[in-house]
Amino acid sequence: MEQRLLAWCLCVFSSLAVTPAFAEQALVAVAANFVPPFREIAIEFETATGHTLRVAAGSSGNFYSQIKNGAPFDLFLSADVERPKLLEDEGLGVKESRFTYAIGRLVLWSPNPDLIKGQETLRLKQYKRLAIANPKTAPYGVAAMQAMQKLELWESLQPHIVMGESLGQTMGFIESGNAQLGFVAFSQIMGPKIKGKGSRWDVPGNLHEPIKQDVILLTKGKDNPAAKALLEFIGGPQASKIIHYYGYDLK
Asked: What are phi and psi of 225, to 5 degrees?
């Protein structure tokens, strides 16, 4: 599993700035929902600092297990608050480095522009497969499950549900046509390839618990200047502008 997740790595971004002598590299674990904005954040960070980043994308639950088993990540951007807190409590995260960098939004999305007509689309079941992220490993999967439970549809929709191990895999099911629609992060449909296409229902926040997402500096990265600089950058105005553009709330 670890090899599968680490295999999907963003290329090391080349900095447009002259790399200073003290430049370092950080290995960052990023929850799949946050990959679209993080691509832009990483480019701006590298340009501003000269540091470089290696990035792995996957589910928060799987990253938590990997870090517990010694994966050499310096920084972890989770899709929840629980796992970074556990890592802090277990001595694998630097105390008082953890903070909420974004609050996510859940959407029901389909590439078919005529399929989704609000929550009634779920009840009508005019589709074969509905994709969600696995609630055991992905916080957005938990939110999707909670929403369907609130709508009293969770049990009746079981024959239609297919689960991805992360939101990236869940989106892959939808884009490939293996599922006609699915619950994903709003940020995933804000990229240039998808923005404005298909149909969607913005899931009301009262149907699920808030999707607060925390970042934490891991003990392996506590002496890494690139990791510490990235942590500060994520909480700064340049990153906040990008995060907000992709539909996340900020605290």
From this structure: -60, -35
